[in-house]
């Protein structure tokens, strides 16, 4: 399968890319890792007339801690997130996530910016970013604006980005001491999208009381879902087997899966319940390390 | 007709260049323009890894990258393994340990193995299974592929210390 014809453009700066997006309008698409877009073009699910390849723009791929945030450039590859010591030690939930995305070859090209901007509810980063309370930096003609991740996913394959905006950075607040996180995913085989997956990030005080918790869920609804009922229930409570079991039950209630080739909706709800429990338990373990 | 683009790559140490239509996939550039048919097309849907080649040392699926995107890069395909008429230790390993049956997945497997052994000359079985997790084999059951890569790792270390 060969994609339908298009014109290929290779801007060298962000402003140049933005003006090309403005010039060619809705008929133009950003090409990042291409690991979602090229398959979609081969299947004729996307037929952009212009591809704006952002891979040659310098300084869009980085991982650094700065001013209380972990900052990841939009063009950063999954493989580099997976092998980052900073991420492994301070943001283990993000390491867990990158590790289970697709397979090694796909991770060598796929980017975190593309993973979020594509807004496929089956993608793994959105749930983790919801759990971490991340911010998206969108750059357009008028400069940068910050979009809280809770407002970023609008509907299936649609985000709050304007057509001529580029996701240039994702920012994650550095968690306070006593924090930990984990991502648990059930997939039919390596490289498959999640049947269901859950990210949890928790902060505990010295007595084991939950100061704050974020829970995000993958592929159990038309958009990535934040388990707000479960989060609200846990805040201020001591995390015990009983409170965690109740939060997991509530998270399954927050999920809105549909039945498909990966399984019936009831099964996916049961998975969410179990994966939430596992993710919270691992998060607590890591918070105490 | 869309504008063609000039693509120049270093392919197994040899320069190759051509003017290509942007929609040409790297795997077709390698097989049809450069004439190296060792890289296979299996699923053509980014799932099987038969088309795996090294792009600047990293394994990628050449059915899911445009040739224009590879402009300026260094590519390695299965044809780049043999040197001076000598099988590469990875090829020798697949031969010795029966790491293939029909051989369709083999060129891609070998590229994933090459990238792994370049980074980690002494991989555990788990490291190997992780490295080839994006390469499907319908014949072997993977057992002998793991052994073949272990064989190659040992042989390459002996070569390095000899
Ligand atoms: C076999 C296979 C298995 C996979 N399994 C998983 C999986 O298990 N989990 C998972 O999460 N993903 C999976 N993926 C998807 C993969 O992670 C994609 O790479 C990712 O969804 C998109 O990232 P990309 O960089 O490849 O983006 P592209 O494919 O280049 O772009 C995707 C979309 O986002 C837009 N876009 C890209 N970058 C930007 C930007 N910086 N600003 C604005 N818009 C932008 C593009 O215009 C396009 O519409 C899989 C892919 C394959 C081929
Ligand atoms: S042919 Fe490229 S992954 Fe199968
Ligand atoms: S040897 Fe036949 S597919 Fe692997």
Please provide a written account of the structure:
The complex is a heterodimer of chains A (289) and B (162). Chain A has 3 domains: 7-52, Uridine Diphospho-n-acetylenolpyruvylglucosamine Reductase, domain 2, CATH 3.30.43; 63-173, Uridine Diphospho-n-acetylenolpyruvylglucosamine Reductase, domain 3, CATH 3.30.465; 179-284, 2-Layer Sandwich (Enolase-like, domain 1). By secondary structure, chain A is of the alpha+beta class. In chain A, strand 8 and strand 9 form a beta hairpin. The longest helix of chain A has 24 residues, at 265-288. Chain A is built from 11 helices and 14 strands. Chain A starts with 6 loop residues before the first strand and ends with a helix. By secondary structure, chain B is α+β, with helices and mostly antiparallel strands. Chain B folds into 2 domains: 5-80, Roll (Ubiquitin-like (UB roll)); 89-161, DNA polymerase, domain 1. In chain B, a hairpin with a 2-residue loop joins strand 1 (5-11) and strand 2 (14-20). Chain B is globular. Chains A and B meet through helix 2 and helix 6 of A and strand 4 of B. Bound molecules: flavin-adenine dinucleotide and FE2/S2 (inorganic) cluster (2 copies). The site of one FE2/S2 (inorganic) cluster has 10 residues of chain B, from loops.
């Amino acid at each position: 399968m060969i994609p339908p014809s298009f014109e290929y453009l290779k801007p060298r700066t962000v402003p140049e890319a933005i003006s090309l997006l403005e010039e060619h309008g809705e008929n133009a698409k950003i090409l990042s890792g291409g690991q979602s877009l090229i398959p979609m073009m081969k299947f004729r699910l996307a037929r952009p007339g212009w591809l704006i390849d952002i891979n040659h723009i310098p300084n869009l791929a980085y991982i650094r801690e700065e001013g209380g945030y972990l900052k990841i450039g939009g063009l950063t590859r999954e493989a580099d997130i997976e092998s980052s010591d900073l991420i492994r030690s301070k943001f283990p939930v993000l390491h867990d996530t990158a590790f289970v995305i697709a397979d090694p070859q796909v991770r060598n090209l796929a980017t975190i910016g593309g993973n979020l901007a594509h807004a496929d509810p089956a993608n793994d980063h959105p749930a983790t970013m919801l759990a971490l309370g991340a911010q998206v930096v969108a750059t357009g003609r008028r400069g940068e604006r910050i979009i809280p991740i809770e407002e970023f996913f609008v509907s299936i394959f649609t985000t709050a980005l304007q057509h001529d905006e580029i996701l240039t950075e994702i920012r994650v607040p550095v968690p306070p001491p006593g924090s930990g996180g984990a991502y648990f995913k059930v997939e039919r085989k390596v490289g498959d999208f999640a049947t269901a997956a859950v990210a949890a990030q928790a902060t505990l005080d010295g007595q084991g009381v939950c100061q704050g918790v974020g829970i995000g869920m993958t592929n159990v609804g038309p958009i990535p879902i934040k388990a707000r009922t479960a989060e609200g229930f846990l805040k201020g409570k001591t995390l015990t087997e009983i409170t965690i079991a109740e939060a997991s039950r509530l998270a399954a209630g927050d999920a809105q899966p549909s039945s498909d080739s990966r399984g019936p909706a009831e099964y996916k709800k049961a998975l969410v319940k179990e994966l939430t429990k596992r993710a919270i338990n691992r998060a607590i373990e890591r918070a105490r390390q | 007709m869309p504008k063609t683009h000039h693509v120049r790559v270093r392919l197994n140490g040899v320069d190759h260049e051509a003017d290509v239509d942007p929609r040409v996939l790297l795997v077709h550039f390698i097989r049809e323009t450069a004439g190296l048919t060792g890289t296979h097309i299996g699923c053509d849907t980014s799932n099987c890894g038969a088309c795996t080649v090294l792009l600047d040392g990293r394994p990628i699926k050449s059915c899911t990258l445009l040739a224009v995107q590879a402009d300026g890069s260094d590519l390695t395909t299965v044809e780049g393994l043999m040197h001076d008429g000598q099988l590469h230790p990875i090829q020798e390993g697949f031969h010795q340990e029966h790491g293939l049956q029909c051989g369709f997945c083999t060129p891609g497997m070998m590229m994933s193995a090459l990238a792994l052994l370049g980074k980690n000359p002494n991989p555990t079985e788990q490291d190997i299974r992780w490295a080839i997790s994006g390469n499907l084999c319908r014949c072997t059951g993977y057992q002998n592929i793991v052994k073949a890569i272990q064989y190659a790792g040992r042989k390459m270390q002996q070569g390095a210390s000899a």
